[in-house]
Input
Amino acid sequence: MTTPVLETNALAKRFGRKWGLRDCTLSIPPGKVTALVGPNGAGKSTLLRLAAGLSRPTSGMINVLGGVPSAADASLLKRVGYLDQARPLYKGFRVDEMFRFGAGTNPTWDMTTAHAYVDQLGISLRDRVDKLSGGQRAQVALTMCLAKRPELLILDEPAAELDPVAREDLLRLLMREVAERGTNVVLSTHALGDVGSICDYLVIMSHSTIVLADDLEFVVESHRFLSTTSSDALALPEGVTVIDTRTSSREVTHLARMTLPLVDETWQISEPTLDEIIMAYLRLRTGSTLSQSHYDAPTARGGVS
Output
């Protein structure tokens, strides 16, 4: 499969006078676990709902698994599993009743898998949904998605507000599915630790648009800290795009995207952590222009608007 699992071009969604998403251009290749990172209000949930066919764009294009997502297109929707932040379950149902509902509405439903997952998690089929803990409800909701056997899982903050044990159990369940079936995953998260541990593709959103999208390994390898004493007014090397700058009384440090290797002995060069890279992009102000040297550094291969 070479078709992007999620592809957009100039995608925009407006809610009254407010833009929930704008000028979103993105192409996520297959075979990836993709982290969608950004502050509240950045447009993450809006993008995921559009991808799940639960909302229609104001303008632009969106394709999922090569098709246009729509609530009316059953052939495409059966290939996609979507988990909303609210984890919608019928609270009056027992777990086995939720599974029977899932089997009746999804032609690819695998009841054996559903039973096996909750058994491993220590959840009884006779438990009522409203009596489950928040972590258990999240696990049941994710099991509902996994038992559908989708080609693409779209997860909106799947581990939000879970305690550490429930969080780890849920992520283990997710990664087992990826390892055994090669399922494509796009998930939004505020937990930067999850990005490095389970994801291999990164999309950063800020102010309703995309500011970075690429393979996680490439993101880490293409960013460096450049430091010099504050008394020196050094010109930036060629091929450098400054993302963030820290200034103290003694030193100026730029976190920059660049073409490597960089040969310039006038600068002290060090490697940032993934968390530091992500935080630098999240600090970008709306409409800000990145400081650049003589020519642009390579844009993200996955598409940056």
